[in-house]
Write a structure and sequence with these properties.
eight-stranded parallel sheet; TIM Barrel; 48 strands; Immunoglobulin-like; 7 helices; single chain; six-stranded antiparallel sheet
Length: 699
């Protein structure tokens, strides 16, 4: 919907904050940079908006000449959440919804060719019933959790457009590559009944199709020698539409998404009739300086280009709807999009056996209104191939009915009714979440199996955290080398599940760190790439490296008993030192606990809160190269080498893994005799602990 002439209203506006019961401020107390949320640093304010407050914006603008019965349209990309707009003191419209755009015809309220007064009032009770995604009012500038700082007020572009009295309101088109046509519908205002639209498709400077027809009716635009849109070849046609004196330009891609079976009979997601394994990250769309709003269009493009560089062909846009420009870059650069509906407070009491129930009718009504707006406004983007209605039961209710609602709005895309946890056996997708994973859910007839979230490997990069020295991940790593190794191992298993179990797609958590959640492939500021980009890109594209080879230096209990000195009574403070006398401690074989893991075995019972372990290990010079821990810890552990703290780990799931040792830690080890001392703590009986040392064999 590009027109040649428009007026950008982004920039510095006056602002004020008043109690909800108050009228507009008589004098505005400061300046705010639009379109950045008031909570963001780039707004110039960085202040939360409370549920009992209203945010007021004000600016003046010069209206263009409107001779010839032109209309003046005021566009808002998105405002979170309830918006009231006044021009020259006259109310011109209101809107509810934090993610969808809206347009107001302000012709009757303006003075053409003169200065006019624009006031916008915003109410945003973030923690109330409206769709809000990961926003949380209480998280303003605070670390922790999987919800983040709210984004209130105007957070997308505001602009003016003077249009003819008879003008195009919207375009809706559906590619049909099998038939070689684009099915198109034009909605218009003020058009004469006999008015016709001229539509043309262009490949560069060459016309490849034309059609003439009336607004409000389906038009069928033939496209000669169809060139399909794919992530590897994201070819876009230019679309030109003329209706009377109005003209707009757009674009489209010819592609089809469907469910079918492959040559082995496995249910698959088919792009243009061919199965393509989809590898993508979870992308939450937050920025350290702008929160919901990227600082520049170049920043939006940077994220898409980075995902392509890392070898991804898909992205899951998680619980947020982006500005149109983000989807444009996905269309242009070639990245498949799974689009989440931001969650609200629509339902509760969901379970695997039954669906959720509506908390309040008003919450459900608002959720469905914004769900409809999201689908209708982003319908034309070829990159979007899937709508996700609910995430993990958050606000989930009436899933079968809402699946049919979405199907009625868009029958051309796949529907993932519930991503993770509470499947109601409707829609096109069976989706599971697991950390770290991966696993594959069992597909059903007509429903493809995907892994909607997995991974979550955390790595804190000092100097690049939201809160100094604070960060967390679902599973911590010690450095880029270990993170890359474990990342490749996860995807190696995912590719195996593709062939063995019918896995169609996997979504890794996540693209970037977000506030204090540090499980991104990039830091929150996008300055540090935490993994080896070339190795990561190769594995996403199906070039699977062999797993690393490790040899035991200090064996674990996986293949047999290993003796440790241990005590269940709190020892003296020097228990971890090499010279400590542990001969009065008990002696027993690892592993310790009450429940055996998948490998290894419980050989010494441990059912108290705390356990202290000591073991002597003799190392050679060769052993000191590429040394790592081999550990299975369902309990919290602190591990010391010769009295120096080497690793502190939280409780993990019952599987063995390797943990790299830092260069600083390695300095505590020496050729000859060494003491490994371990303190274990569990919050309830039933945990397991076993520790050893391994060395990676280098080619």
């Amino acid at each position: 919907m590009v027109r040649e002439n428009w007026i950008n209203l982004n920039g510095l506006w006056d602002y004020g904050i008043e109690p909800l019961t108050n009228a507009a401020p008589k004098r505005f107390g400061g300046r705010i940079l639009v379109p950045f949320p008031i909570e963001s640093a780039l707004s110039g304010i960085r202040r939360p908006l409370a549920a009992d407050e209203r945010l007021w914006y004000h600016r003046k603008f010069r209206a263009p000449d409107l001779t010839g019965r032109k209309r003046l349209l005021l566009h808002f990309g998105a405002v979170d959440w309830e918006t009231k707009v006044f021009v020259n003191g006259k109310a011109v419209g209101k809107h509810r919804g934090g993610y969808d755009s809206f347009t107001l015809d302000i012709t009757e309220a303006v003075t053409p060719g003169a200065e006019n007064d624009l006031v916008v009032a915003v109410f945003d009770p973030t923690n109330s019933y409206q769709p809000k995604g990961k926003q949380n009012f209480k998280k303003f500038a605070k670390p922790g959790g999987i919800a983040y700082t709210a984004s209130s007020g105007i957070w997308q572009t505001v602009w003016l457009e003077a249009v003819p009295a008879s003008h195009i309101d919207s375009l809706r088109f559906t590619p049909d590559p099998d038939a070689g046509v684009l099915r198109l519908r034009i909605e218009a205002s003020g058009a004469e009944p006999a008015a016709t639209a001229q539509v043309s498709a262009w490949d560069g400077d060459k016309v490849v199709g034309r059609v003439v027809g009336k607004a409000g009716q389906e038009l069928v635009l033939p496209v000669r020698n169809v060139r399909l849109w794919t992530p590897d070849d994201p070819f876009l046609y230019t679309l030109k539409v003329h209706l009377g004196d109005d003209a707009v330009t757009s674009y489209f891609g010819m592609r089809k998404i469907s469910i079918g079976r492959d040559e082995k009979g496995l249910t698959r997601i088919l792009l243009n009739g061919t199965f393509v394994f989809q590898c993508g990250p979870l992308d939450q769309g937050f920025w350290p300086d702008g929160l919901y709003t990227a600082p520049t269009d170049e920043a939006l493009r940077f994220d898409i280009e980075k995902m392509k560089k890392l070898g991804f062909n898909m992205v899951r846009k998680h619980l947020k709807v982006e500005p149109e420009r983000w989807y444009y870059w996905c269309d242009k650069l070639g990245l498949l999009v799974w689009q989440d509906m931001p969650c609200g407070d629509g339902g509760s009491a969901v379970s695997k056996e039954r669906d959720g129930v509506i908390n309040t009718p008003v919450a459900a009504q608002q959720f469905e209104a914004e769900l409809k707006a999201m689908i209708e406004q982003h319908y034309n983007h070829p990159a979007i191939i899937m709508w996700i209605i609910f995430n993990e039961g958050w606000g989930q209710y009436d899933t079968p009915r809402l699946t049919e609602v979405v199907r009625g709005l868009d029958a051309s895309r796949l529907i993932n009714s519930t991503s993770g946890w509470h499947d109601q056996h409707v829609g096109d997708i069976v989706d599971m979440h697991t950390y770290p994973g991966p696993v594959c859910p069992r597909s059903e007839a007509g429903r493809a199996a995907v892994l909607g979230e997995f991974g979550g490997l955390g790595l804190v990069i000092p100097g690049h955290t939201w809160v100094e020295a604070i960060g967390w991940g679902y599973r911590s790593t010690t450095g880029p080398r270990e993170l890359t190794r474990k990342y490749l191992d996860l995807w190696r298993k995912a590719w195996q599940l593709k062939g063995e179990s019918g896995l169609c797609a996997a979504v890794y958590t996540q693209l970037t760190d977000v506030e204090s959640e540090c499980n991104g492939l990039l830091t929150y500021d996008r300055e540090v790439e935490k993994v080896d980009a070339q190795q990561v890109a190769n594995v996403h594209r199906g070039t699977i490296p062999p797993p690393p080879t490790f040899v035991a230096v200090a064996p674990t209990a996986e293949k047999g008993p290993v003796l440790w000195r241990f005590t269940l009574e709190k020892p003296t403070a020097d228990w971890l030192e090499p010279g400590f006398d542990d001969t009065k401690w008990n002696e027993g074989p690892a592993g310790f606990g009450t429940r055996s893991p998948a490998t290894g075995a419980v050989r010494t019972a441990w059912n108290t809160d705390d356990l202290w372990l000591r073991r002597q290990v003799v190392l050679t010079q060769d052993d000191l190269h590429h040394l790592a821990l081999k550990i299975c810890n369902e309990a919290e552990v602190e591990i010391y080498f010769n009295g120096v703290l080497a690793v502190r780990l939280g409780a993990r799931k019952s599987d063995y893994e390797t943990v790299d040792l830092s260069p600083e830690t390695m300095k505590a080890l020496r050729v000859g005799s060494n003491i490994i001392a371990v303190r274990c703590h569990q919050t309830k009986p039933g945990h397991y602990i076993d520790v050893g040392l391994v060395r990676e064999v280098q080619d």
